[in-house]
# Entry
Amino acid sequence: MSTTKRLLSGTAASWAGIGVTLLTQIALVPIFLTYWDLKVYGIWIAIQALLNALNTLDRGYTDFLEYEFLKLGIPNKHQISYLLWSGIAVVLIISVIETVLLFGASFYFNIGVLLKDGDIESPRLLYETRWSLMIQWIVWIMANINGLLSRSLSAFGYFPRMGWWNVLLSIVNSMVSVGIVMAGGGLLDANIGILIASSLFLLIQFIDIKKLLTKVGITADRYSIKEGFNCYITSFGLSARYFLENFRQQGIRLIILPFLGVKGLTTFSTTRTVANVSQQGLLTITHPLLPELMRFLQERDQDKMEASFGTVWLVLLCILSPGVVILQIIAPYFFAIWTKGQIEFSNPLFATLSIGVLFFALAQPAMAVIVGNNQLKKQIILSVISALIVIVVMAITIPYLGLLGAGIALLIAEIVAAFGFISFASTWLPRSGLVWPVKVFRIALLSVLITFAGILIMVYMPMLKWESFALTISALLWNAIRYYRNMPYIATEKINSLVKRFTVITKTA
# Structure
C-alpha cells in the first residue's frame, strides 16, 4: 500500500472512530437513561472516567514504546522485536500488580469515594459496581497488550489496519452494551457482556496481529525485563505530560467553579465542546501521518518530510482557517438549537477558543517531530509552562473578564506551547541533516494571523461583520493559493493525482 493510500485509510479510520465516539456519547445516552436510573448511568460513566485516570502510566508506556519503534524503523526490526517483547513482559508484571491493588481498593475501601459518588447505599448496586470496575479493568489490560503488539506494526505501515480494528472493537462494545441494557440487563450484566464480546474480538485481532508480526519478522526470541523496566521508568516523563495536559484541558474547571459557579462552568464546557470539533478533525490527519513522517525523518528525506508537514498545513489553510471563520457566523444559531436556548452563547469566548485550535494546528508538524522522537524533557518543560500560564492568567483575568478570562488563558498557553514546539523542532532537525521549512511555515502562520484579525473584527465590531467575513475569506484564499505554489513538487503531484482520481470517480458515478 502506498503512503497516500495508508494516509487516506488511516484518516478514514480516525474519522470513523470519532463518529463511533460521538454516537456513544450523544445518541446512546437516551437509551441508557430510558432503561437505567440516573444513578446507575452515572456510575457507568464514572467507572470509565476512573479507568481513564488509572491507566495513564500504562498509556504513557505504550506510547513511548511506539515512538521508539517508529524511530528504529524497518531496518532495525530485531531491535523493535527486542523492545516489544521486553515491553510485553513488563506490561504483564505491572498489570498483575495493578490488578491486585485495584481489587483491594475496590473491595476493602469505599468505592463510592473513588467514583466521586459518595456512599453507594444499595448493597446490590455496590456489589455490581465493584465487579464492573474490575471487569472493565481486565478488558483494558487485554486491549492494552494487543495495543502494544499493534503499535510495533505501525513502523511497517500497518497503522490504518490496526486503526480499523479499534473502530470495530468500539462498535462491538457499544452494540453489546446497548443490546443488554434494552433487554433489561443491569450494570454488571452489561459489563459481563462487554467482557465476553471483547475477549472474543481481541482473540481474533491477536491472531491477525500474530500473522503480521511473523510476516514482518518480529519474533519473540529475546527480551529483557530489565530493559523493559528501564523504558517504563523513562516513560514516566510522557505520563507526566499527559497528567499536565489533562489538567490544562479538564482541571481548569476547578478554577472556574469557585469564581463563576456551575452555570459558568456549564457554559464554558459546552462552548468548548463546539470549538474542539475542528481540533478532533485535525487529529484524524496528524495521527495517521506520524508513522510516515517518522520514516521520512529516519531516511533524512527533506522533500517527503516537507510534504508531510505540508499536508497538515494545507488542512489548516484550506479547511480549518476558513471553517473557523464560517463557524463564527453559524455557531450562535447552532448553539441555541443544540442547547435548546438554556445555555447562553459567548461570541468572544468561542472566538478565543477557536483561535487556540488554529495555533494547535500550526504546531502539529513540530509536535510530531518532538513527540515522535521521544524528546521527553522538552515536552515536560512546555507542559509545565503551559499549565502555570493557565493557572496564573485565569486567576488574574477571571475576576474581571469572567469566562473570557479562561479563554484568554488557554489561548496564551496554546500559543506559548505552539511556538515552543516549533522552536525545539527547528533546532532538532539540523542535527538529523534536515531543515525546518521556514518559507511555507511563514505562509501558514500568516493564515492564522489573518483569521485571528478577521475574527476579532467580526466579534468586537459587529457592524462590520459581513465586510470582515468577506475580506478574511478572500485573504485566506489568496494565501492558500500562494502556499500551494510554494509546496514541494512531490506534494503538489500527490494533490493533483488525488484531484484527478476524484474527478474520474465523480464523472463515472
